[in-house]
Amino acid sequence: SFQVVLFELENFQGRKAELTAECKDLGELGFEKVGSVLVESGPWLGFERQGCAGEQFILEKGEYPRWDTWSNSQASYTIMSLCPLQVDSAEHKLLLFENAGFAGRKMEIVDDDVPSLWAHGFQDRVASVKALNGTWVAYMYPGYRGRQFVFQHGEYKHWNDWEAALPQIQSVRRVRDMQWHKKGCFTLPAMPAPPTAPSSS
């Protein structure tokens, strides 16, 4: 099951709306912008434009108190449409290719997250991709920073297929599903979770 709560203002304030299915235009719910997001169960994929188009933002289970917690690129800070992201498998296998049409140097990633392709001996030019198992999110810069690109099961012969302006990827990680991964989801190393108050019970 998928459940996400959207808030008009930062830090979970203001008007809110709960979604359990795709919404192609948050404006229809009365949202001019989304200030914060609470993902009860996911993952979800947010988009900067209506109709699930434009820049993508991966939203896994957790709290996103302001726009820069879901967008690592300074260019885009608004979510205008949202859809549940199906995670097809507990296994993960991704092939990255230097050139379009699955040509040139190749890097295979199996059941691993790679914060830097350079550190693994691969360049930052990635012009085609095969997602053989699992769901992945790639980033333009090392350390899971910059514009995000989601790869679901399938073949991407050219960087235009994932709506990139140029063939640049420098880090990739697996998208986790709570069904498969009991430990939970991804957290950015630079953003530790706030301590929780001890329960009174």
UniProtKB/TrEMBL annotation:
Gene3D superfamilies: Crystallins. It comes from the Eukaryota. The keyword Repeat applies. GO terms for molecular function: structural constituent of eye lens. SMART domains: XTALbg. Keywords: Eye lens protein, Repeat. The keyword Secreted does not apply. Homo/heterodimer, or complexes of higher-order. The structure of beta-crystallin oligomers seems to be stabilized through interactions between the N-terminal arms. Belongs to the beta/gamma-crystallin family. Crystallins are the dominant structural components of the vertebrate eye lens. This is Beta-crystallin B3.
